[in-house]
């Protein structure tokens, strides 16, 4: 299945070529979880290896734990510590 | 009331949206861009937001101010590039009495800084940094916006 991945903060620098400001599509096995996606990204680019350790995760623009299973077309975001305000 | 916008913020907008004759006070927090950080000169900040989630989290803060203190709250946050001195966030809480308004406003800005997915990109004298919580991480690309 294909999901949408959003990277923020310095992780944007490690987004794959062709990404749109840190957003890109990714093919993953059916039933993959957010943690699986993080592991896959870390294998492809070592700058993303600590992704799960240093970000909170969100699915469908809402906080969701890493063990959350994904469905086709869903949006997964990896959120570094925030600095709004 | 919640507003996430690239336009210049008008703090009065929050007040006009909130204050009624039953209110005896309103507390307004305005965050502005300062010209230094970590001993470095700063020219400006670029705020990046995960917009749909940021708006949802801002509404949750407004809702919780109502649930916990029974007060009305407005949050305005700007994104995009802001120069030194410009307002990045406005939080306003109106109330019959000041004590609760101060408490709720403080809680709201503290919570916003933790849970609303917005990040500063800091344009400092010696380079561009992503600000992530307490960390400042140099941008690897050539730093163009």
What does this structure look like?
- The complex is a heterodimer of chains A (85) and B (145).
- Chain A is of the alpha+beta class.
- Chain A has helices at residues 34-44, 51-54; strands at residues 2-7, 23-27, 56-59, 62-63, 75-79.
- A five-stranded mixed sheet of chain A has the order 2-1-5-3-4.
- The longest helix of chain A has 11 residues, at 34-44.
- Chain A is globular.
- With 145 residues, chain B is α+β, with helices and mostly antiparallel strands.
- Chain B has a single domain, classed as Alpha-Beta Complex (Aldehyde Oxidoreductase, domain 3).
- Helices cover 31% and strands 42% of the residues of chain B.
- Chain B is built from three helices and ten strands; from the N terminus they run E-H-E-E-E-H-E-E-E-H-E-E-E.
- Chain B has helices at 11-18, 51-69, 98-115, and strands at residues 2-5, 25-32, 36-37, 40-49, 72-78, 80-83, 87-95, 118-124, 127-132, 135-138.
- In chain B, strands 3, 4, 6, 8, 9 and 10 form a six-stranded antiparallel sheet that branches. A four-stranded mixed sheet of chain B has the order 1-5-7-2, with helices on both faces.
- In chain B, helix 2 (51-69) runs antiparallel to helix 3.
- The interface between A and B is medium-sized, with 16 and 32 residues.
